[in-house]
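Allow me, if you will, to draw on your knowledge of protein folds for a short while. I have a record of one protein: its chain in single-letter code and its fold written as discrete structure tokens. Could you please explain, in whatever detail you think fit, how the structure tokens follow from the sequence? The record follows directly beneath this note:
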Amino acid sequence: MFLSHLDIMRVFERGVRMAEIPIRMTSGFNPHPRISFPLALGLGIGARNEIVELELAEWMPAEDVRRRLAECLPEGVEIASAKAIPPRAKKMVTDVTYEIYAPEGEAFWRPLIQTALSRPQIVVERERKGKTRRVNLRPFILDLGFAGGIIHLRLKVTREGTARVEEVLCALLGGQTKDTIHRPIVRSQVNLIDDAELVKRRMGR
């Protein structure tokens, strides 16, 4: 099943309505439930441990939200846990981890990974609105390894953007295009940081 980010949003909006969770709505002519994902998921990429934020109009215990919402979501979409966060708490994504299923084995992938990590630049071209720009992926790659038939990739996320998992895979395979690298990909972790911790890191504490 391939769901776009908008499809996933609709799934949760429908689930919240069915579960009768008191969700806060946006203002304006066409209000929507205040439901957000810190980082949109690319089409065709599986996911575990994703994070979704709900802004409630009135207090409800986090476990009650989890239980009621879980009962109203379709098969394959599960709520593992829920917790309350302070109102208006701002968090940003620091990095994400992907698993790429690679059946060729360690002897095939280990040299490719070592070569990629040894390079100061891994440049790709991106096209948007008829314009092409060059992007260096290497600064975004925090970790890249192979174990148990899976490539493990951790990418840094900044305000300016990040690398795309498909771009890194294409670079490993010698510049192949996304249309030729049919591989199951799962985003296994999204890591967040709040404003207070971000300030501490910037101050070197």
Notes: The chain has two domains: 5-70, 91-202. The CA atoms of residues 16 and 56 lie 11 Å apart. The chain has a mean pLDDT of 87. Residues 91-202 form a domain with the Alpha-Beta Plaits fold (CATH 3.30.70).
